[in-house]
Inverse folding.
């Protein structure tokens, strides 16, 4: 049994999606509800990461100084060095501690991402690889049934089943032979029989030759006729029921790309990409990750990278597009993350870190007092007149 991304998608994400769709029959609202449920569930993990980031931002300068001193002082005594380093991490926290909550979140977020990229929000593709042999060779090859991995397909609103694309006679053909690609459930029920139970749903497969067009003849019903020896890839697609449904200002949840081939611009996609970049920048402002780092070259460089990150990500979503439903999830999740950061960055600091902040502020004020301002020109002229 698969306990990976597909398991989480099929057994956690889709039941939540079906539950909310059953309450309010809107796939757009179902995406909003699913996103909020997952973000609230992951709140403790992401909060731990944000708190650790805040602590490290304050303690990092002193920690680096302490670590360097320990490494120099106990360079000939590894055991003592390790003990002293452990004491430093106990006092200020471990810089790597913030990575662990992020890693724990990743499988859930990947599963959510995969759910919104699949049925019913987008068309689902199946790739069938064929090997065409000369007629005299195919008799020497033992036929074996072929089937693609199952994918969860919505056959009606709130009704879905794992479907496979299969070739009963196998994916090895001789020139002149015919075969037919069949969609069926993992239990063996043909797609046509399943679709007949929901006559209002139009679930007609679409076929195209992705590789080796000159080697096969492909009919609309999925029948394949082998013409020449070689390798062939057939792509079968099952439509997403909600791919052309809109929500609020979004024209179609399954639409991919801000600009069509004919030059048509989809401003709903552009708006979400821009809003994502703006919300990411606001999140960085709240966390202080894009503030200037003074005279520290390394931190200054990092600050520069953080400042251009929103632009990089926004541009990436324009040139490597995602379905509108996935973009909507990312915008909602980023708004949630921004609010979470705003709340957590105003929590009281531990006593030792608060004292460290006060010391840093005093040193900054002292350095500013030492700076000698330029004498105003008016004062110089006045002094000359008096002399």
């Amino acid at each position: 049994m698969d306990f990976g991304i597909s398991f989480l998608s099929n057994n956690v994400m889709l039941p939540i999606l079906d539950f909310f769709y059953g309450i309010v029959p809107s796939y757009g609202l179902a995406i909003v509800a699913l996103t909020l449920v997952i973000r609230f569930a992951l709140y403790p993990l992401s909060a731990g990461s944000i708190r650790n980031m805040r602590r490290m931002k304050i303690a990092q300068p002193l920690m680096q100084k302490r670590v360097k001193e320990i490494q120099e002082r106990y360079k000939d005594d590894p055991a003592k060095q390790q003990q002293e380093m452990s004491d430093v991490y106990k006092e200020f926290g471990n810089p790597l501690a913030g990575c662990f909550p992020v890693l724990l979140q990743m499988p859930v977020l990947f599963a959510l991402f995969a759910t919104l990229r699949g049925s019913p929000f987008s068309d689902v593709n199946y790739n069938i690889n064929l090997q065409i042999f000369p007629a005299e060779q195919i008799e020497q090859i033992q036929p074996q049934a072929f089937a693609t991995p199952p994918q969860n397909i919505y056959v009606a609103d709130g009704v879905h089943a794992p479907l496979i694309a299969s070739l009963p006679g196998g994916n090895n053909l001789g020139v002149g032979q015919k075969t037919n690609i069949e969609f069926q459930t993992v239990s063996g029920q043909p797609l046509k029989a399943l679709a007949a139970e929901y006559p209002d749903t139009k679930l007609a497969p679409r076929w195209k030759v992705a590789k080796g067009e000159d080697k096969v003849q492909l009919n609309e019903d999925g029948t394949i006729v082998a013409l020449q020896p070689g390798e062939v890839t057939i792509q079968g697609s099952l439509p997403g029921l909600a791919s052309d449904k809109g929500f609020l200002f979004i024209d179609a949840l399954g639409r991919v790309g801000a600009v069509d081939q004919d030059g048509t611009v989809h401003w709903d996609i552009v708006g979400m990409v821009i809003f994502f970049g703006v919300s990411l920048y606001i999140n960085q402002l709240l966390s202080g990750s894009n503030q200037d780092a003074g005279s520290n070259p390394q931190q200054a460089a990092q600050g520069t990278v953080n400042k251009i990150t929103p632009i990089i990500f926004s541009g990436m979503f324009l040139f490597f597009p995602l379905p509108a439903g996935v973009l909507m999830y990312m915008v909602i999740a980023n708004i949630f993350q921004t609010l979470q950061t705003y709340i957590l960055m105003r929590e009281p600091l531990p006593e030792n870190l608060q004292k460290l902040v006060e010391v840093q502020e005093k040193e900054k004020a002292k350095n500013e007092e030492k700076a000698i301002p330029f004498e105003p020109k008016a004062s110089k002229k006045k002094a000359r007149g008096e002399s």
